Amino acid sequence: MKLAPIALFTYNRPQHTRQTLEALSSNDLADQSTLYIFCDGPKKGCESATLEKIREVRRLAKSKVWCDSVHVIERSENMGLAANIVEGVTHIVNEFGKVIVLEDDLVTSRYFLTFMNKALSHYEDLDLVGCISGYTYPVKETLPSSFFITGADCWGWATWKRAWSFYESDGTKLLKAIRETGQGFDFDFNGSYPYTKMLRDQTEGKNDSWAVRWYASLYLRGQLCLYPGRSLVQNIGMDGSGTHSPNTKTFDNDGFSDNFQFLPVNSVENQQARNSFVKYFRTLRPRRRILFSVLDLFIKNRR
Question: Is the pTM higher than 0.85?
């Protein structure tokens, strides 16, 4: 099995980046993997303290051979998270045909790379499958070992060139298609999560989320995303460490998966898992207005 290259996107959070890199280097297949670290550049007129953090991230990236080989790409100017990810992922899949994607605030289980590479290999020629997610929401119900849900996800994920070619950067086109097909309620997980609002806000310049466009692009084509039954990823970025970073444990899992998950036999959406996601999203309703207004700021100002 030829392992997929890993793309890690960083900016100015050295402490988070270190945790991400240390966890990644402890993965079972790290010593056989190639890592590309895309370091975004400084914004015009940024403060000296921010500039030093950017430099510290770059020093950290080059301080150790975190995987079998490491390639550091330093952006001379600030691209922003969306542009940096889209350009970086496009570059990698065009050269290698597939990619595993991380951001600088994602701590992975030691089995993350195993799951990703097994799934990428297993479903490589199955056009219906477009995305592999390492993160699973902290639902109360016991989920299958692994399962499919229509769409895509963004906290530690992987894809192939064939699926990434569906990525539509024009949010207006995506929003129009969802409205014209009457799929808004389903797109929002039975109205439990405001994805349509996030996409509309993106079209109005209120956020620059590439992730909601990635989800919408695959959702509209009926593509499936594979999830592990227990999360292989923990997001450590929502700790209030940044000016616009929310401080919430809403999306935290109580522990990593302890080993590799079996892959589904049938490539169909798992209704049980989808219903569990809907129930979980509905538990957020009492605090949803505050939570998602803060998340909008997080998306808009993170890079």
Answer: yes
Kindly calculate the radius of gyration of the chain based on its CA atoms and give it in whole angstroms. 18
Q: Which two tokens stand for residue 26?
A: 């402890």
Distance CA 128, CA 126 (A): 6
Beta bridge partners of 158: 100, 132
Contact partners, residue 80, CB within 8 Å, separation at least 6: 40, 208, 303
Of the candidates 90, 21, 24, the one whose C-alpha atom is nearest the C-alpha of residue 56 is: 21
Beta carbons within 10 angstroms of residue 192's beta carbon: 18
- Mind listing the pLDDT tens digit for each residue in 74-98? 999 999 999 999 999 999 999 999 9
Alpha helices in the chain (DSSP H): 14-25, 48-61, 81-96, 112-122, 161-164, 171-180, 184-187, 195-203, 210-219, 271-283, 288-301
Q: Classify 229 as helix, strand or coil.
A: coil
What is the SS3 assignment for 59? helix
pLDDT in tens, 122-137: 999 999 999 999 999 9
